[in-house]
Amino acid sequence: MEDIADRADVARATVFNHFPRKASFLREWATRRREKAIKAAYAGGPESSLREILVRFFTELGSLSDASRPESVAVILGSAGLADTWQRSPLAVEFAGIFAEAQRRGEIDSTVNADRVGVILASSYYVILTAWAGEEPAPFDLTEEMTGTVDLILNGVLPRPTANQEPVPNP
Fold first, then answer.
1. The CATH number of the domain covering residues in 22-155
2. What does DSSP assign to residue 82?
3. How many CA atoms within 13 Å lie on the side-chain side of 23?
4. Domain ranges of the chain
5. Which residues form a coiled coil (predicted)?
6. String of DSSP letters for 95-153
7. Within 10 A of 115 (CB to CB), how many other CB atoms are there?
8. What is the DSSP letter of 171?
């Protein structure tokens, strides 16, 4: 909070008055980043595929994180221990909406629980982001790691059936 006050050239008390709880500051920081990422995600228009939307979303978040690595690291590591970070987050809700819309368009299986996939993707993002923030220099490219995670979620882990093979049953 002191660093924020210094950078904003305001008194420390001003920062604390505006954000009396650390969690409030972190929530606002995350909200602003999420809004920028959502805007970027939908920049391709309504005909964008689910994968295109998610890749643009994570490309924007990766760019924001890389552009302000010291601040991002401080906020990310500061939020890792807060219970709010690991509860059903607004990010999970946002992802669930993206997956639900993809279901309506027929892009993903209609039996998939969009809320569950949203939680899985948001949780993956938080874990990857924390690992990225935990080392200097950054141990991997954040955008590449999240794009790989998106592909893993969309493609699954089961082997693809060959021409002579029956698909693996879905229990």
1. 1.10.357.10
2. -
3. 8
4. 22-155
5. none
6. HHHHHHHHHHTTSS-TTS-HHHHHHHHHHHHHHHHHHHHTSSS-SS-HHHHHHHHHHHH
7. 16
8. -
Distance (Å, whole) CA 127 – CA 108: 25
pLDDT in tens, 17-32: 666 566 677 778 889 9
Give the amino acid at 35: E
Structure tokens that stand for 113 in this block: 């629980």
- Cβ partners under 8 Å of residue 159, min gap 6: 168
The three-class DSSP label of residue 75 is: helix
Q: Say whether pTM exceeds 0.85.
A: no
- C-alpha 59/C-alpha 32 separation (Å) is 15
11 in Cβ contact with 5 (< 8 Å):
yes
Which residues neighbour 125 within 8 Å (Cβ) at sequence distance 6 or greater?
Answer: 58, 61, 91, 146, 149
pLDDT digits (tens, 9 = 90+) for 114-147: 999 999 999 999 999 999 999 999 999 999 999 9
114 in Cβ contact with 100 (< 8 Å): yes
